[in-house]
Amino acid sequence: MIRPAQFLRRLRSLVTSTRRDREMDEEMEIHLAMEADDSIRRGLPPDEAMRRARQAFGGVQRFREEGRDARGIGPARDLSGDIRYGLRVLRRAPVFTAVAVATLALGIGANSAIFSVVNAVVLRPLPFPDTHSLVSAWDGGHSLAEFTYLRDRTRTLESVGTYLPGFGVSLSGDGEPVRLTSALVSDNFFDVLRVRAAYGRTFEAGENGVAAGPVVVLSHALWQSRYGSDPSVVGRLVEIDGVSRRVVGIAPAGLTFPSSETRLWIPLLIDPAGNRCAADDAICRSGALGTFWGSYGHQVIGRLQPGVTREQARTDVLRIAAELQAENPVWRPAMPEYVANVSVSDLQSRLVADSQRLLFILLAAVALVLLLACANVANLLVVRGAVRSREMSVRAALGAGPGRLVRQLVIENLLLAGIGGAAGLLVGVVSMPALTAMLAGSAPRLDEVRLDGGVVLFTLLLTTATGLLFGVLPARRLARANAASALSVARGGAGQGLHHRRLAAALVSGQIAIGLMLAIGAGLLVRSLARILDIDPGFATAQVVSARVNPPRARYAAAEPRRQVAREIVERLLAAPGISAAAVTTQLPFDQTVQGMAMWVDGWTTDPNRLEVLEIRGVSPDFFRTMGIDIRQGRGFTDADAGGAPVAIVSETAARRFWAGRDPVGGQVRYPWPGWITVVGVAADIRNNDLKASSQPAIYVPFAQRPQVPFTVVVRAPGDAASVLATFRSVVADVSPETPLSHERTIEALMQESVSTPRAAAALLLSFGALALILAGVGTYGLVAYGVETRRQEFAVRMAIGARPSSVVALVLREGARFMLVGVVLGVLGALAMTGAMRSLLFETAPTDPLTFVTASLLLGITALLACAVPAWRATRVDPNAALRD
Amino acid sequence: MAAPELQQGALDLLILTTLHSGALHGWAISRRIQQQSGDVLRVGQGSLYPALYRIEERGLVRASWGTSDEGRRAKFYQLSAAGRKALARESAAWRTYSGAINLVLQGAGL
Fold first, then answer.
1. Which of A232, A364, A566, A673 would be A286's cystine partner, CB 3.0–4.6 Å?
2. Kind and range of the H or E element at B43?
């Protein structure tokens, strides 16, 4: 406590410090002069006298500084001295320093790494000018008709563009044919983004038209890798999906929107009268559901007019949606909530919406880890404080005030944090690639994750905050304790030990609580992941290898060549050694695509505007056998179906839903246009793309009756997947050399990819939880070991008067158990408060799952007790004679 | 709490003692302590001015500028009323303390 009078004096001295400094300088000069006078009186020559005077006095500068300290003002000049002293102190205690720095490096490193992801994904603006006015104009996928309605009728948007992301194309000529991801875009796409071409131009108005010449814009990366950064590639023709397209421009470096895989941009064909149908595709050409109205999945982006809010834009889009609903020739059965769903959101938040929750949880988890690390280091400092109290006493006796001592300690702690922070930044940078690999598929823009000014600044701030957080309490305590009882150190500080122990016990309880919260979080995610992996997808996942076959669309425009290439590839594969089954499908489960078809079900559908949407797959006869999908009723497909009457197989869910109480076999369905298809069988349900989502009604048709490109070939082969894929490649190269293969994967790998987000979340939280467990264990061990050390004499006395070792062990464990229990209770309460935020990441697992809470608590308890056991054992080994002599 | 303060501030006590007989400037204080201790205690001179300022902060001495016997401008320190009280209190405590230590030393035959 500072008395008011003292406080006022300090305040005054702060204000008048310059004057007082001058005064003290002057006084010291006078002192020297007097000393010299004295020497001269005793017969020394003047300059020798002055030299001696200075010698006797020491450096004037030093005393000036100490004089200022006496008045309680810390000048910046002392800083370098304090830092040098602090470094010396840290060097003198290498074990302490190493443990503290390692702890901090892990804590800060985890934060830097996660922050670098948050920074790239959420915080860093999209690489476009004026991102604030860039909106996702109409969330969800839309048809080109809907886009043109919005584009032509909007009153609030300056410009409206659209794109179809992730459109796979084959690029041939200039070397091996390759499979690349393109984006099909409206001609104003780059203008809406306000991006100029690095070379050449972007698209021009009219290039979405039927009459426009085929053009393409290449990404900077593709231009570098395939064309060696040759600017003359602009204007050249390249072959994409069998069509010669003129390269009109190269996009600026770094631009890959809409996805990081985008390598080229191709204008959409926007043709209100027609569609993108192949020449003899009867289904497509039958008109009613052309691609203009019937192909969804186009994303709509726009620029808000100046001064228009997102809410105003939403009202505007809502109006247009209502008009659309009235004028739409094909009602969208999948979206009964068509109008109500309209929203206009900031493009960036829309892109990161799905990953934000995961990143938030990770950020919270690493913050807890850092808090735990702080508690650990604080604990180390408290224990060390007991050792250093003598040093503090000596410094206090030499005239250093409490403020000066606190400052010295705070600087030491900041130094410690600084070293830990630098090491942490290194840990962060080193773990970035692993982190982004783990998060692949769970967040966009991961290719932009890197060490930048933001990450460095964040780490710096975090480091400073960390240093203050773990350092201030122990420092204040140490400095104050010593200022108050400078001489009491001689007594060995029994009372002080107790004092320290109480603070340390609180810290360890906190550590156990935080460790438990992380363990519970990790446990919930692991349990949720196990629940997901327990789900039977409905098909065999082992020994099935797949690859997508991409015959150039232009050369395989007609149905017959498509049928033929598929048939030939399957036949050749079946003849190859080690392959027991092979089949074709237009959509492979879990390859992250969905093909839906609106269908009329005879005896169920009554309203032509309320058709049912079924997942549709065109498959060859062996598909069910290859994938291990049971035919539950009726028959599978045969080769005879290729030229026969239209037939279909429906899934059990479809059968249950649309043929309730009736026999689906023999039932009739049709596309939105005339032409009945007979149901000949019922196949077992399978899950598609997301294990967590229940099976949707599905329909299978013979591939030969509806041949599409690209298609996927699946083979069942007990052997090594790599050699199977080699066979695959040579077969396809033989059958159709201009056809690239893509998406070469095992079904198992596909399934793993589908759980990449829950897996990444569980793995990351598990590693943070393990880190927390170790830190909490070390903290507990340190506290108990220190407690045993300070109570050696007590234990010696107890043992000397006949206490059994077991009772000494019990004594130590009882103390450990006390703060462990406090920690567990706090941890459970903390977890209850926080796990609710994880709900969206959990599958069939309650955020309060009792099993997880109990298991995690037991785990923490056992860890803490193990940490107590070694010191407890050591307590029984105290030699009474030796201890009592000390 | 006089004892620890006395311990921490043995120099403070010495300074207050030299000022008992009247106002002195810094150099004279250091010279006086050296002489009176039979040249045993050379005031770690660097501690002198910080100590003087500290004591002044605590209100135990008053300082004023004047002219020394040799005609140099100098700052003179003088005990305040509080300083006199502190001197009486701390010197008594010091005597008790050092007397006690002497007793112990004698008891041990040292």
1. A673
2. none
Residues paired with A746 in a beta bridge: A545
Q: Which amino acid is at B43?
A: V
pLDDT at position A278 over 50: no
Which positions in chain B have a beta carbon within 8 angstroms of at least one beta carbon in chain A? 3-4, 7-8, 25-27, 30-31, 45-47, 49-51, 53-54, 57, 59, 68, 70, 72-75
Between A140 and A736, residue with greater pLDDT: A736
The residues, ordered by sequence, that sit 6+ positions from A305 with a Cβ below 8 Å of its Cβ are: A156, A157, A158
Give the model confidence (pLDDT) of A665-682 as tens digits: 999 998 877 789 999 999
B2 part of a folded domain: no
Q: Are A713 and A583 in contact (CB under 8 A)?
A: yes
* ipTM for the assembly: 0.80
* Per-residue model confidence (pLDDT) at position A59: 47
**Which residues in chain A are contacts of B26 at CB distance < 8 A?**
27, 30-31
Q: A646, A673 in Cβ contact below 8 A?
A: no
In terms of residue numbers, what domain contains B24? 8-107
Domain contains B1: no
- Cα Rg, chain A, nearest whole Å: 37
Among A5, A30, A485, the residue with its CB nearest the CB of B74 is: A30
Q: Which residues of chain A make contact with B49, given a CB cutoff of 8 A?
A: 24, 27-28, 31, 63, 67
Are the beta carbons of A58 and B7 separated by less than 8 Å?
no
CA distances to A149, A737, A786, B28, B101 from B52, rounded to whole Å, are 88, 97, 42, 13, 28
Number of A/B CB contacts below 8 angstroms equals: 81
Q: Best of A19, A20, A26, A27 to disrupt the B interface by mutation (most B CBs within 10 Å)?
A: A27
Q: Which residues are A613's β-sheet partners? A: A598
Phi, psi values for residue A700, rounded to 5°:
-115, 135
Give the pLDDT score at A302: 92
Chain A residues in contact with B8 by the CB 8 A cut-off are 396-397, 486-487
pLDDT band at A104 (very low <50, low <70, confident <90, very high): very high
Mean model confidence pLDDT for chain A: 82
Instruction: Please give the pLDDT value at position A573.
Output: 94
What CATH number is given to the structural domain containing B34?
1.10.10.10
Q: How are beta strands A612-619 and A698-702 bridged, if at all?
A: parallel
Residues 6+ apart with CB under 8 A from B54: A70, A71, A399, B12
> Does A30 contact B50 at a Cβ distance shorter than 8 Å?
no
Per-residue model confidence as pLDDT tens digits over A554-592: 788 888 999 999 999 999 999 998 899 999 999 999 887
Percent of chain A whose predicted confidence (pLDDT) is above 70: 85
Strand partners, B61: B79
Full-prediction pTM beyond 0.95? Answer: no
**Interchain contact, B75 vs A34, CB within 8 Å:** no
Question: Which residues are A179's β-sheet partners?
Answer: A170
pLDDT at A834: 86
Smallest Cβ distance to B4: which of A5, A24, A486?
Answer: A486
Answer whether residue B97 is part of any domain. yes
Q: How many domains does chain B have?
A: 1
Q: Chain A residue closest to B71 (CA)? A: A34
Taking an 8 Å cut-off on Cβ atoms, the answer to whether A34 and B27 are in contact is yes
Which element (helix H / strand E) includes A613? strand A612-619
Distance to chain B for A61, nearest Cα, Å: 10
Buried b (16+ CB within 10 A) or exposed e, A112-128: bbbbbbbbbbbeeebbb
Query: To the nearest 5 percent, what fractions of chain B are helix, strand and coil?
Result: 65, 15, 20
**Chain B closest CA to A356's CA: distance in Å?**
58
- Chain A residues whose CB is inside 8 A of the B25 CB are 30, 34
Token readout for B79 is 């005990």
